[in-house]
Design goal:
Elements lengths: L1 H52 L7 H77 L1
Helix pairs in contact: 1-2
């Protein structure tokens, strides 16, 4: 029975650890997503300055297209980071759920073995008692 309790506790701890790791993955993903947006803004500022330095209009034509493409690709990268963090968190949560299910199954198996041992021992004891009382009657 102690083994069953231990296995359940280990499973709960593993599930909790996976939950913490999943939250950490989401938090780190949010930071990386924001960093990506900051990088994109910096590139846009450099491109805008370069366009102005070369006498190009950033509000129309090629200049606008360049800035629009850069902004779009930067946002795509930021959303990819968010998506990857979410997928990682989901995988970690799934691992935690599996650890908990495995520990519960192992605990049930341990308890069943304990009860089986009790029943078998009781049956053997009764059989021994029955044989010894039959020998005494002879």
């Amino acid at each position: 029975m102690d083994q069953a309790d231990y296995q359940e506790a280990v499973g709960r701890n593993n599930a909790q650890s996976a939950e913490y790791a999943a939250k950490d993955a989401i938090d780190r993903g949010a930071v990386e997503e924001q960093q990506q947006r900051n990088k994109t803004r910096a590139v846009l500022a450099q491109q805008n300055a370069a366009l102005a330095a070369n006498g190009m209009d950033a509000s129309s034509g090629t200049g606008l297209q360049l800035l629009s493409d850069t902004a779009g690709l930067g946002e795509f990268d930021a959303m990819t980071i968010r998506s990857n963090a979410s997928k990682q968190a989901y995988g970690l949560k799934l691992q935690g759920a599996n650890a908990l299910a495995d520990s519960n199954a192992a605990a049930i198996g341990s308890r069943n073995n304990a009860f089986s041992t009790l029943l078998t021992t009781g049956s053997k004891a009764y059989s021994s008692y029955k044989i010894s009382t039959m020998d005494e009657k002879k």
